[in-house]
Structures are given as structure tokens and as C-alpha cells.
Amino acid sequence: MKEFGYERVFDVAGAVALLGADPEARCLGGGTNLVDLMKSGVERPARLVDVRELPLDRIEFTQGEGLRIGATVTNSDLAAHPEVRRRYPALTQAVLAGASGQLRNMATVGGNLLQRTRCGYFTDLAKPCNKRVPGSGCPAVEGEHHNHAVLGASAHCVATHPSDMAVALTAFDAVVTYETLDGPGELPLAEFYLPVGDTPHRETALPSGALITGVTVPAAPVAARSRYRKVRERASYAFAIGSIAAALDVREGVVREVRLAFGAVASRPWRAREAERALLGGPADAEAFAAAADAELAQAEPLPHNGYKVPLTRNLVVATLTELTEEAAR
Fold first, then answer.
1. What's the CA angle centered on 60, arms 56 and 62, to 5 degrees?
2. What is the dihedral of CA 311, 317, 318, 324, to 10 degrees?
3. Binning pLDDT at 50, 70 and 90, where does residue 65 land?
4. Distance (Å, rounded) from C-alpha 274 to C-alpha 282?
5. Which residues pair with 54 in a beta bridge?
6. What pLDDT does 237 receive?
7. Is residue 64 scored above 80 in pLDDT?
8. Do residues 212 and 54 touch, judged by C-beta distance below 8 A?
9. 0.90 exceeded by pTM
């Protein structure tokens, strides 16, 4: 591990000053991803800015019953909050599906959003990887890629984003707030993660030296009727091979509102806009759910060994929306 400086900060201004002065500095929250990458040599920060003592650890409901989550809120505290569980059940379920209790106790909301891919080529310094060394290549395209992207990838990178929480937040139109030396800013989560294109090493649209201060989720009554489902290769904690965050409002058999986002199929949480458009105003039945999934997945470009993700995601859409419809009818 490369030697690094360490500084603990207690106010946002102090953190932003340190991050703005040193482009090689990184924020340290729970360290559940960053420290592992430092041990393997993938991340080599010159300085760690410990942000755990910042006053960003509150969960608040905003005017209009939206939700604001501070960046240093732990995953455990987020999942356990009674109002989050009641108003955004898919968010609670996504956090609980994401890691063991020990990791949730350490991991922070801000850090969760910034966690990096678990692609084996990215974490192996003996292999080329365009995320680590731009222009070195993406061996996953011809190599091991059974859990890689089928949507939105490119010849430069086919890795997937690992966060479960971010999938649910994407479905609910969350906005990331941040602070820089130039003042505060915000990014809709749909724009927070950059398309892969030919620059996979540029993963987010955060300005240089920015400190994530929180996540705001707009009021969404439909979110109370939501679910997160995750498919993984073993029953214990593992990264998804497919997941879905879904919310559905059905009245008299007609879809009045719907939210859909997919996980483990792209380099970022995938908002299923085509499927949402196909469903809105139509019948709430398995045939319509399947057709909407097919409309979204028509743009999929699977590799030789991950084509299973297309029918898997289709089945997730049908099963999850069917369950939500049946619950609404009871």
C-alpha cells in the first residue's frame, strides 16, 4: 500500500478546503470499498480526508414529504429508519440486500454511491483495464464476462455498477447534493453516473474536489408501493447478477404511475424509461409487463456469456410488477 496522509475533519468547509487543494485526496467514510482497493493497489490516494465526524448524519423529511439523507448516514441507520421503511420500502430492501450487517454498520450513503466496480480485471493489477489505465484495453470483452453489462456498455468497458441502494434511488429520481470551493451544487442521480463511451475511467459527473453532502429524494406517494428484488448466485451476501427497483400505482386495472430501475445490467443504475412509457395508462397484467420489459431490453447487446441477463431481467419485471399488482388488489 502506498503511503498516504490522513486528516480528520469536523466541518464541511474544512473538508472541502482539503479536497480542493489536493486532487489526489479521497474521502474516507466507512472505507468498506476504498480501503480494499488501497490494499490491492488499485486506489493510491496521497491523502485520506476522514469525513465520518461531519454533521451530515441525519435523515430528514422535507416539505412535501420528500426525503433528505446525509452523506455520512450509515446504511444500517437508513435501512432501520421507520419512516423510510414505510414510505420507501424498496430503498430499505435494497440496502438490506446489499451487504452484511457488519458492513452496513460501517458503510455510508455517500460512499455507497461512489463504490467502484467489482470486475475482476479492474481489481487485478496484472491485467489491463481501461478504468485503471485508460487505453490499456478491456479484456472482459473477450474474457470472463458472465456478470457484465448488457445495456449501455461499449468496447472500452463492459463492467457493471455494484450498488443496490443506487438502483432504488434512481427509480425515485434522487438528487445528489455536493459542496465545492465554488459553492454548493446538485446532480440528479440519472446524470451523476457518466455513460461509459470511450472514457470509462470517468465514472461520475462530480466536479474535482467535490464533497457529497447528501441525497434528496422528492416526494413520491407511489414509492410506498414499491419493492426491490435481487438475484444473486448464492443466498448469502453477494453482488447481483440482476435486480430491479419497482413502484406501481394501479387503479381499476390500469397503470396510473410506475417507476422501474435495473441493477447489474449496466455501468450505472439503469432507469427503464421505455418500459415505464409502455406501461403508463395501460393494463396491469403479465402480458403488458412482459411487453414493456421487451421494449426496454430491445437495446440490450449481450456478450457471448451473459445473454442470460436479458430473460432474467424480463422475468424480474413481470414477477415484481405482478406481485405489486396483486398486493394493490388485496
1. 125
2. 160
3. confident
4. 14
5. none
6. 82
7. no
8. no
9. yes
